[in-house]
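[DERIVE STRUCTURE TOKENS]
===
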Amino acid sequence: MKAFIFLAVSIWSVPVVGIAANAASQELAPLHVESFLTPFGSGATDILVSLRGEGVASLLSGDLLVSERSVLDQTVGRVRFATGHLKVAKVDGARALATIQADGAAGSSRVLRHFNKVMAGDTVRAVAVAIKPALAITPEVTIDYNTLFADPNAGSAALEMSPSGREALAAAVESMGSVRTGMVSVEGYTDPSGDSESNQVESYERAMTARRFLVESLGFDPERVKAFGMGEQEPIDTSNLSGSAERNRRIVIKVIPGT
């Protein structure tokens, strides 16, 4: 399998993490997006979703909600990112119906990318949200596991970068220019095989291995390098052909703008 390294220019949105709220959040019992009731492509103006969980009992028609998804951060554990805004249309026994008022959250696009929209399984809480992103054009570099790791299939107890992987990572970040002057995001991705929780943990551990090399060997400020486990999100090859899994198993280095 031929390994690859490529540079790309992407548009990210800031703020990086979490949600800036313009009203105090209301804590709900567990609540999640169960399913979409209005099919995509139906032409309907309002997309209707069903909500399930103990928190349904606390909802009233007209309540404003935010849907969220979490990823792993190396310092604080799981970090929640907004995926959209909802408005409760009806509470019907153990289920509530809500319309999507805003599908996607610009402040989460840096991490969730085009998966930053409302999806089944997202958790939900009651909060009014105001996100004012600033746009910036920044570089990123992608290196696959075959290039970076001595054994790209090794378990978490035996993760080790190969000599050629260390050289490739050092060359890649130096080519990004501003990488040493800003906050740096190290994101790990896996292929879709296996369960999603294990994939997220594996991707996080591999991102942490790359982060340690940046800090311990290249002298990066540990306070300015963050690792994220993205799991099987954002596959770059969905063909299921030979080699597609290897292309999806990768580390992505990004400079976080505005820092």
Remarks:
- The CA atoms of residues 36 and 79 lie 25 Å apart.
- The mean pLDDT is 77.
- Helices lie at 109-112, 145-148, 163-174, 196-216, 244-248.
